[in-house]
Design goal:
alpha+beta; Helix Hairpins; HSP40/DNAj peptide-binding domain; 5 domains; HSP_DnaJ_Cys-rich_dom; oxidoreductase activity
């Protein structure tokens, strides 16, 4: 059976460009791939025919020979080159088929690598995390703080190249700088990370003694960090370029500082609001008066307690809370009263309280109201 014209097989004109040939080949290969045509018994032979045609036409020398002599160029003696379907041509077929293999399965396998042929030259350094604890006072005021961060920095001996004397790395002989090697397994060509260079595409003949060829060394760095006023637990501060140094001269990662605000002995925080629980004596709550309370800035504020105040009563001090992060005003501070029952009474104090109790029938409205309701409840249950 006579072979079909290679241009007809790919569905292109004789003067098609290399890009047009490649585009047509990929389209045909996808359409005729055996894994997609289980119900077509001729799919495999048609798929091989497409690969044979593209293998001949993608090479300028083979294409010129085919344009001049037709199929006879590959039958021996005319073109001088190997046949597209066998011998040395299998390597070319594998290379050509890997293109369509990437298109068919690239998404599932994670896609192609970036750069020329997926090669990986320099690697970006990792981002680092630093947990920083600050006091509530520091969170209120903001501060400049120096921290020590253990990280990897660029090797000064080789200037990050990883090679002794700062020499440039050379292309890996195993993968020719591609970072990947291809192996044929039956009908498929499988691409794997190069075992020699680990996917970098380069090797260092004389590794730097200071860094062992990595281009970076471990070192503690001192950094001055600006903590803005108003930070809360969970606030994240990003310092660009202050993370781990890149591999083989790659860009540096970032440093992320996570803030944790310590609990305070006097104040509880809720966003921009501060709460302070202030104990007051029974006498002060009953008679009323003035008390001094602390504020987060280290100052004092005088608060007037109304006569007859009960536990839980709150009073607001405007503008005495926490500032909003990066501007936006200041919150308020709330004073909450906790009326303290006297303890360790003397005999005389007990006598005075008993006397007060006898005279104070109308001094406890809450209690009177409660027990009136209780009596009503019991009476209703009896009836």
């Amino acid at each position: 059976m006579a072979k079909r014209d290679f241009y007809d097989v790919l569905g292109v004109q004789k003067g098609a460009t290399a890009e047009e040939l490649k585009k047509a080949y990929r389209k045909k290969a996808k359409e005729l791939h055996p894994d997609r045509n289980h119900d077509n018994p001729d799919a495999e032979s048609q798929f091989k025919e497409v690969n044979e045609a593209y293998d001949a036409l993608k090479d300028p020398q083979k294409k010129a020979a085919y344009d001049r002599f037709g199929h006879a160029a590959f039958d021996g003696g005319m073109g001088g080159g190997p046949r597209p379907g066998g011998g040395a041509g299998q390597g070319d077929f594998a290379s050509a088929f890997s293109d369509v293999f990437d298109d068919l399965f690239g998404d599932f396998m994670g896609g192609r690598g970036g750069g020329a042929g997926g090669r990986q030259r320099a690697t970006r350094g990792s981002d680092l995390r630093y947990n920083l604890r600050v006091t509530l006072e520091e969170a209120h005021q903001g501060l400049q703080k120096t921290i020590k961060v253990p990280t990897s920095v660029q090797c000064s001996t080789c200037t990050g190249t990883g090679a002794e004397g700062g020499a440039e790395p050379t292309a890996c002989p195993t993968c020719s700088g591609m970072g990947k090697v291809r192996a044929q397994q039956g009908f498929f060509t499988v691409e794997r990370t190069c075992p020699t260079c680990g996917g970098i595409g380069q090797i260092i003949k004389n590794p730097c003694r200071a860094c062992g060829g990595s281009g970076r060394v471990e070192k503690d760095r001192s950094l001055s960090v600006n903590i803005p006023a108003g930070v809360e637990t969970g606030t994240r501060i990003r310092l660009a370029g202050e993370g781990e140094a890149g591999l083989r001269g790659g860009p540096t990662g970032d440093l992320y500082i996570f803030i944790e605000v310590e609990e305070h002995a006097l104040f509880q925080r809720d966003g921009q609001s501060l709460f302070c629980l202030v104990p007051v004596s029974m006498t002060a709550a009953a008679l009323g008066g003035d008390i001094e309370v602390p504020t987060i800035d280290g100052g004092r504020s005088r608060v007037k307690i109304p006569a007859g105040s009960q536990s839980g009563r709150q009073m607001r001090l405007r503008g005495k809370g926490m500032p909003a992060l990066r501007g936006g005003g200041v919150g308020d501070m709330f004073i909450e009263l906790a009326v303290e029952t006297p303890v360790n009474l003397t005999s005389r104090q007990k006598e005075l309280l008993k006397e007060f109790e006898k005279l104070g029938e109308d001094n406890n409205p809450e209690s009177s109201s409660f027990f009136t309701k209780v009596k009503s409840f019991w009476d209703s249950m009896k009836s």
